[in-house]
Amino acid sequence: MYHGRESGKGPVVGRPEILKERPDVSDIWDAANAAFPVVVTRSWWERTTSAVDDPLARQVLPDRRELDTDPTDRADPVGDAACSPVPWVVHKYPNRVLLLVTKRCHLYCRYCFRRNHVPSDRQDPSEEEWETALAYVESSGAQEVILSGGDPLAVRDDKLFATMDRLRTHVPTVRIHTRAPITRPDRVTPGLVAGLAKRQPVWVVVHVNHPRELSTEVDQALARMVDAGIPVLNQSVLLRGVNDDPSILATLFTALVSRRVFPYYLHHPDHAAGNAHFRVGLDEGRQIVAELRGRVSGLAMPRYVLDEPEGTGKRDIPPRDAE
């Protein structure tokens, strides 16, 4: 780990500072950034090392392989478009509906399956689009709304709370999918936590892929929510060069449980354009998960799932001998 980096210079690390320590990404930066933003929070950067194979840097720094085309790439790898009745809404399951609050994130993961949220797009819905989206959710008959994006915590508290308050009379349960407690833990303010606790039932699903993402400030952010009675779950993505090792996953999931965060999903990587170098084969993934089962308790064992490209939703990936 770096111990000499200065803190307090702003929430995002500038390109010159990154290239000073990782000059190897300078020649690919512009092309990668044009396809999908390169933005790294200072909190995250302070957890990385200068090693080329550092698992945290690997998730956020550009890689020349992002520009390669793989024959299995899909423009819409989880079939969202076919299940979007109105803009900013995805409705795959009868009892729950997903609302894309924004396309903005605090940090942009290079393996993201929504890489089609390109920089040239408008990052937030217009007033008319937002009203249409909210009206659809209200009339959907769903029992649960998932606030996603982008990152729903990239919007102000007042918009977030107003959205929750409006939908509450129609949809009993709100789930917030966010990486902010991990990438920008100072976003989890007392005001945010109090507002969420006031609007129960609210479930927060965070996204952690590697044990080193769990810094002291991340621990504090997670504890604030759990202490306020907000259930926190985690979803991880199985990523080559990051966590494709049962020992790393066992350490991660055990650490999450000790922090009162339930390991919910382990996602098989989606076939988004530009992320082929992160992908693990299905047989290899099954072998990793089989070894993981022997190392953790049921409480620390997530569901290993694949989000179908046809838009039919997630399915559990069975062990090879169960097929």
Structural features, described:
- The protein is an alpha/beta fold.
- The protein contains 11 helices and 9 strands.
- It has 2 domains: 53 residues, no CATH class; 242 residues, TIM Barrel.
- Helix content is 32%, strand content 14%.
- Strands 1-2-3-4-5-6-7-8-9 form a 9-stranded mixed sheet.
- It is globular and about 50 Å long.
- The N terminus is likely disordered.
Q: How would you characterize the largest beta sheet?
A: 9 strands, mixed
- Per CATH, the architecture of the largest domain is Alpha-Beta Barrel
Q: What's the count of strands? A: 9
Q: Work out the helix count.
A: 11
* Percent range of helical residues: 25-40%
Structural class call reads: alpha/beta
CATH topology type of the largest domain: TIM Barrel
Poorly predicted tracts of residues? 1-8
Summed up, the domain count is: 2
Q: Strand-residue fraction?
A: 5-15%
Computed Rg: 19 Å
Distance from first to last alpha carbon? 43 Å
Regarding CATH, which class of the largest domain?
A: Alpha Beta
Q: What would the average pLDDT be, to the nearest integer?
A: 93
The spatial strand order of the largest sheet comes to 1-2-3-4-5-6-7-8-9
Order of helices and strands: HHHHEEHEHEHHEHEHEHEE
Mind telling me the CATH superfamily name of the largest domain?
Aldolase class I
Rough outline: globular
